[in-house]
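Schema walk-through. Below, the input block comes first and the output block second. Nothing else is stored per chain. Lengths vary across the set, and this one has 351 residues.
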Amino acid sequence: MTAKKYTDQKDVSDVVISTRIRFARNLREYPFPCRLSDEKKRRVASIVKEAVLEGHSAISDRFRYIQMSELTQEEAVSLVERHLVSPEFISDRQGRGLLLLDDESVSIMINEEDHVRIQVIQSGMKLEDAFSLADKIDTLLDERLNFAFNEKLGYLTQCPTNIGTGMRASLMLHLPALQESGVMGKLAGSLSKLGIVIRGMYGEGSEPYGAVYQLSNQVTLGITEQEAIKNLRDIAMQLVAQERNAREKLSENINILDDIFRSYGILLYAKLVSNSECMKLLSNIRFGVEMGLFEIDLDILNRLLIEIQPATLMKNVGKKLTPAERDHIRAELVRTALSQKKIPANRRLEN
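--- output ---
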């Protein structure tokens, strides 16, 4: 089999799934959330909510406010699965609120570790676009909320590691070949020396399910947002090149190819599939698409990565489900998505 050739070096969608820009901000007049009473948390939430919904932004009327304490456990966990909030944000939902744009590309967490966490998510490698939108929202809110800022230190945050720009830029990457090659541990050590951290799918402490990793900047003090973004982009492009080279080396490995085609067959006919198994199988199929074996829209696979998650599955169905019921519905969901796509007739293994 001939490995796929990457003729358009600007298109990195085969590796980069999505981009996220997050700003941590605090109101100058209030202590950090860890020192706020429940009453003061509600007051902060009300102030931020009013600043967004009653602001003069063209997108103000596209936001809806979610009182976190009113959500079911499944609804709250689904927000994490969809990367709209952090796991910590749903650990204690009292006094916390969420402002969510109608297309879910922008979310604003209120009273997480900081008073305000502005987050913008876009598909693919769009660091500058995501930053531009986050910066506009940040500027509009600062005019009404008066964020805590020090001329020497920059934006003041509860955690010292966020002081300065208060920005975390991150990219979601699919790195099956590098994972298969067993180099991820060594890479993580090398990246940390460059001010970059690579973690699992849901950030710190999470596992890289389906070979999906989160790459983000660590340094926020003594560096501009633009410098941090450029550093992240440069390192991401190096990882893209390494991943593609590793794929080329694996393209003749019959065991890898067998895993990929078996994964396609299992998901095309399975009646029950667990979440962990499905993540692995979808990763293999995506690997096959990236190697040129299948013609499946990557957007479909990206969507499935979220829709198969347990809480999101139950949220979309509208009721609680047993593990067996989830496994059955998950299998049907994936089978329906994949059955409309065929392996191209011109894609054959060469002896």
